[in-house]
Amino acid sequence: MKRLFSGALLTMVAASSMLVACSSNNTATPSTTPGGASTAPSAAPQEKVKLTMGSWRTEDSEAYAKIIAEFKKTNPNIDIEFKPIKNTEYNTALNTGLQSGNGPDIIHLRPYAAGAALADAGYLEPLTSVKGMDVFSKDTLLAATGTDGKVYGVPTVFSSTQVFYNKKIFQKYNLTEPKTWDELLKTADTLKKNKVTPFAFGSKEGWILSLTQGTLAPSVYGTDFIKKILAGEANFKSPEYVSSIKMLKDMTPYFPDNYVGIGMDDMRNMFVSEQAAMMVMGDWEYAVMKKTNPDLQMDVFPVPPMKADGKATVTTWVDGSFSVNAKSAHKAEALKFMEFLTTKEFGALAVNELQKPSTIPGVAAKDPLVAKIAKNADTISTPYASVVYFNAGNPTTKSTLENSIQGMYLNKLTPEQVTEEVQKSADTWFKPKK
Predict the structure, then answer these.
(1) Which of 35, 52, 175, 214 lies 20 to 30 A from 220 at CA?
(2) What's the pLDDT at 382?
């Protein structure tokens, strides 16, 4: 799919072959009846096993209940308990559990560098024996590949970010989907004049800031600029990147009052309650918002370009894979679930219950908006650079960007100082491929 990109942060090589998973062969010695006739033994009932599944997707509990129920149709002896943790607390809780020798049997793996770090630390079971892994492209598998070249997770869904908008509010003020950046700003001006908050936005949670920058920045520096950074032909202090940070600062008149204290829950509430007309956000929020307000009339549009010859874009990446805890007491059963995740049955559930593009080829969405999101991701995508390429370092360059933008919105840093901090972080670990 066009949304995927090779040449990720870590030099990874997908496993050269995928072997069929081994299964236990339970046999018994035939018994003999009193009359001497041999009878075939009755199959011994399989022992019930309960697995735990960790995740940061608290919003997806109902969807995973349906996914697990589908899995149990062919694996009735395996129970799976979906135990999500708030997304901002998940990484810490997972690392603490794994370091103590515990953790869930099935792990929802953060993509790219974060997942590779857990694999490199020995916490994950390689999936080289899982049947069906050959359905994924090498680029897709990069999201869950360790530095040893082995694959440690089954990629489940793609994510993309774009601009959600309220169709009813747009119609009320005779607004249409903007095709240029100037049109977007004029739209925001019209909304503000009519006392409608243009963008549901907050800088309280850092991940929102890197996501917003990653979504909007290609409109400023184009789709090829990040390739220049990767090749050493530019860096984070280059004028193009500085301009992308200035753009974030320039948008503050269109944000809610007291936006520095607003987090994701507040942003969502503003949008679904129709207090705000637009929101830069990932496609995963669609299902959540539709459930929160079934009457909400929403749609999406790609980020329009600033330059006349520019292209509209959405930002994409593989958002999470499922892996197996290397210390699970029930690895064989957990690996059966990994195999299920490679099937079109799961792919159909993912696209229609999670309302996100599936990683399984040939699976179409029933929902027209999900289909639109998937089409944009296939045709006009650019990679989420902070996740795919710059999520390493200690602290990571991604988190440095987030903290620095927060500082900018608190008027403690200038856009130039933000980019200086980001470059300092990258210099500690990133080596361009010249």
Answers:
(1) 175
(2) 93
Residues 198 and 168 in one domain: yes
pTM passes above 0.85: no
Q: How far is CA 345 from CA 70, 201, 321, in A?
A: 8, 36, 17
Question: Across the chain, which distance is largest between two alpha carbons, in Å?
Answer: 95
| Residue for token pair 């598998």 | 141
Give the C-alpha distances (Å, rounded to integers) separating 117 from 4, 144, 423.
21, 10, 22
Q: Are strands 298-301 and 276-282 parallel, antiparallel or unpaired?
A: unpaired
Residue 434 DSSP one-character state: -
The residue with tokens 């916490």 is 123
Backbone dihedral region for residue 26 (phi beyond 0: left; psi -120 to 50: alpha; all else: beta):
beta
pLDDT score recorded for residue 31: 38
Q: Running along the chain, 434 residues long, what does each successive block of 10 average in pLDDT?
A: 42 34 36 39 68 95 96 97 94 95 95 92 96 91 93 94 98 98 98 98 98 97 95 97 98 97 98 98 93 96 92 93 97 97 94 88 89 89 93 95 98 98 98 84
CA–CA separation, 334 and 340 (whole Å): 10
Q: For position 26, what pLDDT does the model report?
A: 38
Residues 179 and 324 in one domain: no
Of the CA atoms within 13 Å of residue 58, those in its CB half-sphere come to 7
Residue 281's φ and ψ, nearest 5 degrees, are -160, 165
Q: Which of 171, 155, 384, 387 shows the shortest CA–CA distance to 280? A: 384
> What is the C-alpha to C-alpha distance for residues 373 and 369, in angstroms, rounded to an integer?
6
- The CA distance from 120 to 118, in Å, is 5
**Do residue 185 and residue 295 come from a single domain?**
yes
Structural domain total, the chain: 2
In terms of domains, do 324 and 310 share one? Answer: no
C-alpha 158/C-alpha 90 separation (Å) is 20
> Residue 103's closest CA among 116, 122, 120?
122
What is the structure's pLDDT at 24? 36
Residues of the domain holding 85? 49-157+319-342
SS3 145: strand
Backbone angles phi, psi at 322, to 5 degrees: -105, 135
What is the helix, strand, coil percentage profile of the chain, to 5? 40, 15, 40
Dihedral of the CA atoms 278, 316, 434, 431 (nearest 10)? Answer: 80
